[in-house]
């Protein structure tokens, strides 16, 4: 079996950016994507989410961004990615679900069922969408209503006439309330008091937020999302929910879940039909466990004080869409950084050629 210079795992924004830059550097590689068609996590977003609603999709390297119009995001972005793959002749193989990555005598071996790829370096671009975080609360298994996570969100019409509890303090929860409060009964609960951003989100403010995420990654701590440190802002499409008091009526987390609702520590009770868990995601990196990249603190340390993409524990490994690069703009920049990291690792490696 021949040995590749690199393997990219994931064909979302970060994976395609990495492949583009690897191609420009003349580095032989393949991109392994678990989905049957292009689009990454965007393929699985709800139908009601339009390109006007998303925070933004940065242009892929050497291209223009998709238009911010009324198209469904789960159709427009996959079409954009598909055209980009084809136009740049990127070596994407799908569907391939990676099970694990081993180190065999200095060569990395990527396993997917009976299939294997041997490579000198690896770019991990698996993101977070496939690893939703669902906290456990006493009694949740007794709830007779419907429990959904962000990954299962079917669109606002599904909830008309039902009492919905939105759980979570991030941007997704704010967006769900914006869509649901004007059409049905929706109540918001969070573990912490929401932090609202009242000033403009300037480039300087964005850089400061990213720096906080970088500090965690540099210390080997599990990364937080950039959004979690920027504060929350309301968009025009959420103002109707604001006028209805959906955000002001926020309550702290309940103590337990009962068959037909939730109960707080003070004994108060709210009957609900649906619990919508907007509780975020964790990095999808379990397939890297055999490489022992995690620090004692639970995260993977990256080089250059958290601003790079190279794993400190193993410079052959690049992580994109992880920590500070977990945004479309950050993913593009990380793709260039990862390609250069691969180039550095290849220039210093002493491995057989095949």
Question: Secondary-structure map with pairings?
Answer:
Elements: E1 3-9, H1 13-24, E2 29-32, H2 73-87, E3 92-93, E4 100-104, E5 107-112, E6 115-124, E7 146-149, E8 163-167, H3 171-180, E9 185-190, H4 203-218, H5 227-230, H6 239-243, E10 251-252, E11 256-258, E12 261-263, E13 269-271, E14 274-277, E15 317-319, H7 328-348
Parallel strand pairs: 1-2, 1-6, 2-3, 6-15, 7-14, 8-9, 8-14, 9-10
Antiparallel strand pairs: 4-5, 5-6, 11-12, 12-13
Helix pairs in contact: 1-7
Q: How is the biggest beta sheet arranged?
A: 7 strands, mixed
Return the domain count.
Answer: 2
Assigned CATH class of the largest domain: Alpha Beta
Strand content: 15-25%
Net shape: globular
Q: Strand tally, please?
A: 15
Low-confidence stretches: none
Helix count, DSSP H or I runs of 4 or more residues: 7
Helix content: 10-25%
Structural class: alpha/beta
Please compute the radius of gyration using only Cα atoms: 21 Å
Let me know the CATH homologous superfamily of the largest domain. Answer: FAD/NAD(P)-binding domain
- Looking at how many chains there are and whether they match, the oligomeric state comes to single chain
Average predicted confidence as pLDDT: 89
- Report the CATH topology name of the largest domain: FAD/NAD(P)-binding domain
The CATH architecture name of the largest domain reads: 3-Layer(bba) Sandwich
What is the N-to-C order of secondary-structure elements (H for helix, E for strand)? EHEHEEEEEEHEHHHEEEEEEH
